[in-house]
Specification:
By secondary structure, the protein is of the alpha/beta class. The chain contains twelve helices and eleven strands. It is 41% helix and 16% strand. Strands 1-2-3-4-7-8-9-11 form an eight-stranded parallel beta barrel, surrounded by eight helices. Strand 1, helix 1 and strand 2 form a beta-alpha-beta unit. The radius of gyration is 19 Å and the shape is globular. GO terms for molecular function: oxidoreductase activity. Pfam families: Bac_luciferase. This is TIGR03557 family F420-dependent LLM class oxidoreductase.
Length: 322
């Protein structure tokens, strides 16, 4: 079992993301994963630094810990040729510690270029073409590509690592999971859904299964739930809503009805390590083996101390029930 830490770039400035990555390495985490957004989800998050610059700084300031995007949409806001170049450079700067997580994106971040927001079936087609382009460029040499949605003209990534980064593909349905098995090296999810893991394996997927585990540490339960509500109520409507809303104000309106107590059903929260371990166990039981802990609590340093003292050893030994 590999345990990672989610760098919530929407909630903290870039310098703090680098500092938290250093703390995560010192606390014993195996990897850090950073969101790749243009906008935060909610107005009071207040931040959304450029993920690739932050990753470069983290690579220079750490020595052991793995790095990952969680996740990058490699079309519309980016072209996959740029993602191929950025991922290759980050892999070199981190001495091979980087993993590229990709997904079909959210309108919140991609609409800023002024291009139309495609339906999900078309986004999955674009994701497929993006992966084909990235893989092509990582072979070395000049390449062109003519797809249904995307083109590449006489392009070459000059600085390539000896071993290309792993690619994990985010998904919550059959189409994305099959794409992860076919063109990815692993799968990425945000819910403890054993059906997703079974579908991935049935489609031929044999790679790592990444997931994010929502936690909120604080010295008392009320403070933990209050912070979880402030930071993560945007996720309450579910992924189909998250992917489609275009602006921060839409997320404010869509989550106006979410209460602090509503967060208790989906979070490990408060000071009791058993509640946090139980939250992690759900994902292990579902078949995930690379778990990024998302701390929605009010005190990151308190959480790192809590992890090092109460969770690190026990979570490394977590296995699926039965």
């Amino acid at each position: 079992m590999q345990i990672g830490y989610k760098l919530f770039a929407e909630g903290y400035p870039p310098q703090e993301m680098v500092r938290q990555a250093e703390r995560a390495e010192a606390a014993g985490f195996d990897f850090v994963e950073i969101s790749d957004h243009y906008h935060p989800w909610l107005e009071d998050h207040g931040h959304s630094g450029f993920a690739w610059s932050i990753l470069g700084a983290i690579a220079a300031r750490t020595r052991r810990i793995g790095l990952a995007t969680g996740v990058t949409c490699p079309f519309i806001r980016y072209h996959p040729a740029l993602v191929a170049q950025a991922a290759a450079t980050t892999a070199l700067l981190s001495d091979g510690r980087f993993m590229l997580g990709v997904g079909a994106g959210e309108q919140l971040n991609e609409h800023v270029t002024g291009k139309p927001w495609p339906p999900v079936t078309e986004r999955h087609e674009m994701l497929r073409e993006s992966l084909q382009i990235i893989r092509l460029l990582w072979q070395g040499g000049y390449h062109s590509y003519e797809g249904k949605h995307l083109r590449l003209v006489d392009a070459r990534v000059f600085d390539l690592p000896e071993t290309p980064p792993l690619i994990t593909v985010a998904g919550s349905g059959k189409s994305a999971v099959h794409l992860a098995a076919e063109l990815g090296d692993g799968v990425f999810a945000t819910e403890p859904d054993p059906n997703l893991v079974r579908a991935y394996r049935k489609a031929g997927g044999r790679g790592p299964r990444y997931a994010e585990v929502p936690l909120a540490w604080a010295p008392d339960e009320d403070s933990a739930l209050k912070s979880a509500h402030r930071m993560f109520r945007f996720a309450a409507p579910g992924w189909k809503v998250q992917a489609e809303l275009p602006n921060v104000t839409n997320f404010e309106a869509a989550t106006a009805h979410v209460r602090e107590e509503d967060m208790a059903s989906s979070f490990g929260y408060g000071p009791d390590p058993e509640r946090h371990i139980a939250a992690v166990q759900q994902f292990a039981d579902a078949g995930f083996d690379h778990l990024a802990l998302v701390n929605a609590g009010p005190d990151p340093d308190g959480f790192f101390d809590f992890y090092a003292k109460e969770l690190s050893r026990r979570l490394s030994e977590v296995t699926p029930a039965g």
